Structures are given as structure tokens and as C-alpha cells.
Amino acid sequence: MILSTTPAVDGYIIKEYKGIVTGETIIGANIVKDFFAGIRDVVGGRVSKYEQVLAQAKDTSMQEMVQRAEKMGANAVVGIDIDYETLGNGNSMLMVATSGTAVVIQQSTAVR
Hints:
Number of strands: 6
Radius of gyration: 18 Å
Shape: elongated
Distance between the termini: 25 Å
Order of helices and strands: EEHEEHEE
Number of domains: 1
CATH architecture: 2-Layer Sandwich
Strand content: 35-45%
Largest sheet: 4 strands, mixed
CATH class: Alpha Beta
């Protein structure tokens, strides 16, 4: 599966648009509490534990989006957008949402 934030993939042509696909992951209050409990893990102004949790949430959201694209018969997702939003009482949860357009692409045979 080819993934791109751009509306096209260099060297490929879009043969078919399958539709919009999304993936969502919500990090619950326990993760946020664990983050604040582990705030001591700051290296060079960065909080590595929080970065790891965010990366894992993004990866999970992307995987969900890819699975939905595969079910539609797509071999690529273009125009991918990743959003981070706080939710819940006192912003105690974080949602990572990904979206893009599932497409079928084919390698271009055009001479450049």
C-alpha cells in the first residue's frame, strides 16, 4: 500500500477513485495520567514517553485507514491528513484521526 500526503504519486497514474477512508484512535485518560506521572522523563526539552504514545496512536490510526482502503480494493491512499484533537472532560483524552482518498494506481508508462 502506497501512502502519500500529496494528491498524486510521482511515476503513477490514478486509475480509479474508491472513496474517502479514515482511521481514528483515542488515547484514554489513563495514558494521559501516565504521561504526567512520567513527566520526569524529559530529555533536551522533549518528553519521550509522550512522543512514543503519540507515535503509537498515529500508527494505529494509519493502520485502520489502510485496512479500510484495502477492503475497498485500493492499492494506495493519497491526500492523507493527520489531525490531533483533545476530547473529554478537562481534555483528558487525545484523538488522532487520519483521512485520505483510497485509489487504485498504476505505474505510468509515459516517457519523461
